[in-house]
Design brief:
The protein is mainly alpha-helical. Helix content is 50%, strand content 7%. The protein has helices at 32-35, 40-59, 72-93, 102-111, 120-140, 166-177, 182-194, 198-203, 236-250, 272-286, 297-311, 314-321, 326-329, 337-345; strands at residues 5-8, 16-22, 25-28, 209-210, 215-218, 230-233.
C-alpha cells in the first residue's frame, strides 16, 4: 500500500500529520485531543515519537524477525487506543512525559479501563494495544517492559488467550530437554511448573531454589507484586533438572559475581522478548502450529493456570500462580459444560 503523508501548518503551530490507509481512513500521528496538551516543541517531539511507533507496527511489530507488520486496521486501532492512554498518563502526571512508565499502564487498566461502560471485548482490545505499545517501548527504552497478566479477552470472554494446550506443553517440555542445554531446559521446566512471569525469570536467584523440598521460595522483595513471600511447587523432574543446572552454573565464570539463577549467553537478564524468542524456537522445534496465536512467555503461564484449575481447583491455581485475588484466577476456570454435567450426575 502506498504511504501518503499530508502535512499542513496552522498559526498556532498545531501541525497535522496523517498516514492514509484507506480512501476514507487515515492514522492521525498526533490526534487533535493530544495536540491540546502540547506546546510547539512538545508537539514536534511527540510527533516524531509516534511516527516511529506507528511505522514499527506497520512494518515489523507482529514478527520483527520476519519483518512482518500488523494489518492497517490493527495499526489504526492501536494508534487510537495508545494515544488515549498517553493523554491519561499526562493528566495523571500533570505534565508531558514520554515514554509512559509501565506502572502507568497497570494503573490505567485498573483505575480507568475496567470501569468503562463497554464490553469485555473492547477492554481486551485496549489491553492488547498497550501490550503492543510496550513491546515496542521495551526494545527502545530501558526499563519499559510491562509485566501484565491480561484480564480481558478481545473475543468477549474472560478466558486467557493464546495458551499452550496440554499436548503442546508436553511437546515444548520435550523440545527443551532435547536442547542439551541445562539453562534453557530449567527455564522451561520451571516456568511450566511455577508459571513464572518474564520478570520472575529475570529476577530469579539461586536462593529461591529448594530442590530437597521441590519448591521455589520467592521472597517478598523479589516477587513481581512485592506483596508476599511465595512457596511454589515444583515437580520432581524439574527439581532434578535444577540440581544439574546449579552444578553446571557453579563452574561457569559468568555467574561468579551474581546470584542470578539464569543469564543469557551475553550475560544479561532475560526479557519478555528474549523469552518469547525462546518459546517460538521451541514451538518450531516441536512442530507446534501456532496459527494466528501470539505466543509470548505468558502463554506458558496461562497454560499452567488453565490445566491446574481443570485438574485441581481455583484455590490451587491461585496459590501456584501467586495471585492476590481469586478474581484474577477465575478466568482460568474453563471447565467444559460436559465435564460439569458429568460431575452433577455423580451426586
Amino acid at each position: 500500500m502506498v504511504l501518503l503523508v499530508h502535512t499542513s501548518m496552522t498559526a498556532n503551530h498545531n501541525e497535522r500529520c496523517a498516514i492514509q490507509i484507506e480512501p476514507s481512513r487515515s492514522i492521525q500521528i498526533v490526534p487533535e485531543q493530544n495536540e491540546k496538551h502540547l506546546n510547539e516543541q512538545q508537539h514536534a517531539d511527540y510527533r516524531e515519537y509516534r511516527w516511529k511507533f506507528i511505522q514499527w507496527m506497520r512494518t515489523e511489530g507482529k514478527n520483527p524477525e520476519k519483518a512482518e507488520g500488523y494489518s492497517d486496521y490493527t495499526a489504526y486501532e492501536t494508534a487510537y487506543r495508545t494515544a488515549r492512554f498517553d493523554r491519561w498518563a499526562w493528566n495523571r502526571e500533570e505534565r508531558y512525559s514520554i515514554p509512559p512508565e509501565p506502572e502507568r499502564a497497570t494503573e490505567y487498566i485498573e483505575e480507568d479501563v475496567i470501569y468503562r461502560d463497554v464490553s469485555n471485548a473492547t477492554k481486551g482490545k485496549t489491553e492488547e494495544a498497550l501490550a503492543r505499545y510496550y513491546r515496542y517501548l521495551a526494545g527502545k527504552y530501558p526499563g519499559c517492559e510491562w509485566e501484565h497478566d491480561q484480564r480481558f479477552s478481545s473475543s468477549g470472554d474472560d478466558s486467557p488467550r493464546d495458551y499452550l494446550t496440554r499436548r503442546e506443553r508436553r511437546r515444548v517440555r520435550e523440545a527443551a530437554l532435547a536442547t542439551e542445554n541445562w539453562r534453557e531446559t530449567t527455564i522451561v521446566l520451571t516456568s511450566l511448573d511455577a508459571a513464572l512471569r518474564p520478570v520472575e525469570v529475570a529476577r530469579a536467584k539461586t536462593g529461591w531454589v529448594d530442590t530437597d523440598n521441590m519448591l521455589l521460595r520467592i521472597p517478598r522483595e523479589d516477587s513481581s507484586k512485592n506483596t508476599d513471600n511465595w512457596r511454589t511447587s515444583l515437580t520432581s523432574r524439574t527439581a532434578d533438572a535444577l540440581e544439574h543446572w546449579l552444578e553446571e552454573r557453579a563452574n561457569n565464570p559468568m555467574y561468579d559475581e551474581t546470584e542470578s539463577l539464569w543469564l543469557t549467553r551475553e550475560g544479561t537478564r532475560y526479557s519478555s522478548r528474549s523469552l518469547a524468542r525462546l518459546l517460538r524456537r521451541l514451538c518450531d522445534d516441536a512442530g507446534i502450529d501456532t496459527g494466528g496465536r501470539t505466543m509470548t512467555w505468558y502463554s506458558v503461564r496461562h497454560s499452567t493456570g488453565t490445566v491446574l484449575t481443570a485438574e485441581r481447583d481455583l484455590k490451587a491455581a491461585k496459590d501456584q500462580l501467586r495471585h492476590q485475588s481469586a478474581k484474577t484466577t477465575m478466568k482460568y476456570d474453563q471447565v467444559p459444560v460436559e465435564d460439569r454435567r458429568d460431575a452433577l450426575e455423580k451426586f
